Amino acid sequence: MSGVLLGSILSAMSTGAGALPILFIQGSITHRFRDTLLAFTAGIMMAASLLSLIPESLATGGYIQLVIGVFLGVMTLTIMEKNIPHIDLSHTKSGIQFDEKALLIITAITLHNIPEGLSVGVSYASDAADTGNLIAFAIGLQNAPEGLLVALFLINQKIGKFTAFIIATLTGTIEIITGLIGYYLTSYIGFLVPYGLAFAAGAMLFIVYKELIPESHGDGNERTSTYSFIVGLLFMVILLEIL
């Protein structure tokens, strides 16, 4: 219990950690830096899905559970994407009223964090002791640039730096609640574990291919982003071997 709570809190608070630099940054962050960070995160999440979540799902269940779980993860993200307006934060211009646009951004980011929190909670319910920590780490890294982009957007809407930092941090707190829900569901209903692990893998793979990779290749930094993706993947492989 203490492990999943701590992991959920750390992964959720990574959103705030990512937004922290806006309190000190005077200028703007380059597209190259942003794209490199997103691609690095994509590599980490890809490795976590393929080398941790999917093998663990197969070990605790089988191919049927894996396919069903991955499909449910992908479909959940697909449904959320279709029903929650998606806005590319890095290309949003200033001059839009905070009441309309910023509220939409905050709501969308908060709701998109729900499956990520579930992924962390389910991972801690696995018999593999390190799976939860690894997935919490991977989700946390994905949350960091997200928090930074949300905070930068809010600043463009003439919101104060500290207020923008607080709001960006709060968008990640829902992961604590959903992490605990995912943990309790799979802990007390044991047969859900392989489905839950596969669900987490499907959700993460969707985020990688649909969101992180395209966004990291949209500003002419394809080669740098590709290198960063590979480095992120290898970094996670090494981390898996060490742990």
TrEMBL record:
Entry superkingdom: Bacteria
A GO term, aspect molecular function: zinc ion transmembrane transporter activity
The entry's keywords: Membrane, Transmembrane, Transmembrane helix
Topology in membrane: Multi-pass membrane protein
Membrane spanning residue stretches: 6-25, 37-54, 60-80, 134-155, 162-185, 191-212, 224-242
Pfam families: Zip
Major location category of this protein: membrane
Subcellular location, record wording: Membrane
Cellular component terms (Gene Ontology): membrane
Protein name (database record): ZIP family metal transporter
Taxonomy of the source species: Bacteria, Bacillati, Bacillota, Bacilli, Bacillales
